[in-house]
Write a structure and sequence with these properties.
CATH architecture of the largest domain: 3-Layer(aba) Sandwich
Strand order of the largest sheet: 3-4-5-6-2-1-7
Number of domains: 3
Helix content: 40-55%
Number of strands: 13
Structural class: alpha/beta
Number of helices: 16
Strand content: 15-25%
Largest sheet: 7 strands, mixed
CATH superfamily of the largest domain: P-loop containing nucleotide triphosphate hydrolases
Radius of gyration: 29 Å
CATH topology of the largest domain: Rossmann fold
Length: 462
């Protein structure tokens, strides 16, 4: 994306609304707006920054009045992009906004690329790359927790930690390089004292990496497949978790033959539940396809609820599935506890626990709602960790995870090398590599084509 010229775009969503905004940014933003907006008194160039003024937009080609508008100018560097900016606030009709945008382009502005306003803010030091990504996260946030995470990222919470880690790595590198210039004894002392510092740094990086699963769940949502044999109450549980009747429920086994998906907010997460066909020997093409889709849902899910009817033991295929899922299995969900006497239920749970000692068990009744709050709590914990706390998650992008993993790898190689006696100049190279990896998070060493691809995912006008 070129920079230095003046760009324009519609900044509000497509469609009709009460208000629409056409945004300009660049050295000629104010003069372009002055060409279009007729108003009594002082021109926009003479108005104070951040002041709203009223005027009429004129088509510069035909002289036609297009709309009665409010115009706000923002003078560099005190604007979103760090350049002169103008926002023309019109009535929100699609055709009207396209005419006002066309008038801006006819007056010398260029059509902005997707994300170009935020790209210019990045170039002008108004925000770093992690903060720029947070702007897109704010726009796409679907839940309260995702919104809070995006705001923490935009405020620079992750950037501050990364800069601190990078500074400490560079300080350690400088200490090694200084020791190399002196004598062997100083070099050995530097290596010994460095081990503790690097262990602490590695711990801080690892603490960020442990947030990766929760961060992904916050940004992208969390998919939970509900799996079990026919007629164990999977669809009833599905409806209970959604708090509305979405799937058809029938006493007849095999009612559900295809997967059904619905998303709800749970613990601040966008949780998508997938109701699946019952696990059984298929009879006919339709049931075969249904079971194939069940397997696909299990493979693609972030977590799985394995549902059993109270009093029934899991089959061997079900136990194999639980073993294969590992920590993706949230729990053996023992449904229909309302139909068993307590003493029989206790014996059934004890028997199941003995057969599957590592699997978490939870008795519920999808009909009465008993046990559902605890089940919901466990689902949130499986996404966010044992504390179920989303308010401290900072690492929400795969790009951040890869950069942190590379930094951790380089720090690990340096620590191992210091133990085995590698040359100190090699140890210094490892630390610089780690520092460069951390710089990728905030964008100081990211290649231009990577930055271009990142901003191209933004919406137009942002």
């Amino acid at each position: 994306m070129p920079a230095g010229d003046t760009i324009a775009a519609i900044a509000t969503p497509q469609g009709s609304g009460a208000i629409g905004i056409v945004r300009l940014s660049g050295p000629e933003a104010v003069s372009v707006a002055d060409t279009l907006v007729r108003r009594p008194g002082a021109s926009l160039a003479q108005c104070r920054s951040h002041r709203a003024v009223r005027g009429v937009v004129i088509d510069p080609t035909t002289g036609e009045e297009l709309d009665d508008v409010v115009v706000i100018s923002y003078r560099e560097p005190n604007s979103y992009t760090g350049e002169d900016m103008v926002e023309i606030c019109c009535h929100g009709g699609s055709y009207l906004l396209s005419r006002v945008l066309g008038a801006c382009l006819d007056s010398g502005a260029r059509m902005a690329s997707p994300g170009e306003f935020t790209y210019r803010a990045f170039l002008n030091g108004k925000l770093d790359l992690a903060q720029a990504e947070a702007v897109a996260d704010l726009i796409s946030a679907r839940t309260s927790a995702a919104l809070r995470a995006a705001n923490r990222l935009r405020a620079g919470a992750l950037s501050e930690i990364v800069v601190s880690l990078r500074d400490e790595l560079l300080d350690a590198c400088s200490s090694i390089e200084a020791a190399i210039e002196t004598d062997d004894e100083d070099t050995l002392d530097a290596a010994a004292s460095l081990q503790g510092d690097l262990a602490r740094l590695a711990g801080r990086i690892d603490a960020l990496l442990t947030q990766a699963r929760a961060g992904r769940a916050l940004r992208e949502g969390y998919r939970v497949a509900i799996v079990g044999r026919p007629n164990v109450g999977k669809s009833t549980l599905f409806n209970a978790l959604l708090r509305r009747s979405r799937a058809i429920v029938s006493p007849a086994p095999g009612t559900t033959r295809d997967t059904i998906e619905e998303t709800v907010e749970m613990g601040g997460l966008a949780v998508t539940f997938i109701d699946t066909a019952g696990l059984h020997r298929a009879r006919g093409i339709a049931e075969t396809i249904g079971l194939q889709r069940t397997q696909q849902a299990v493979d693609e899910a972030d977590a799985v609820l394995l549902v059993l009817a109270a009093g029934r033991a899991p089959s061997e295929p079900e136990r194999e599935l639980a073993s294969r899922l590992g920590d993706r299995c949230v729990a053996w969900v023992i449904n229909k506890t309302d139909v068993l006497p307590l003493h029989r239920l206790a014996r059934a749970l004890a028997r199941l626990q003995a057969q599957s000692p590592s699997a978490p068990l939870l008795g519920i009744s999808a009909i009465t709602g008993e046990g559902l709050p605890e089940l919901e709590k466990r689902i949130v914990q499986s996404a966010l960790g044992p504390a179920g706390d989303s308010d401290h998650v900072l690492v929400t992008h795969e790009r951040h995870v890869r950069a942190l993993q590379e930094a951790m790898r380089a720090v690990g190689l340096c620590r191992e090398g210091l133990t085995t006696g590698i040359p100190m100049d090699v140890a210094a190279l490892y630390l610089r590599e780690a520092a460069d990896s951390l710089a990728h998070v905030i964008g100081t060493t990211v290649p231009e084509d990577v930055i271009g691809r990142l901003f191209s995912r933004f919406c137009m006008g942002k």
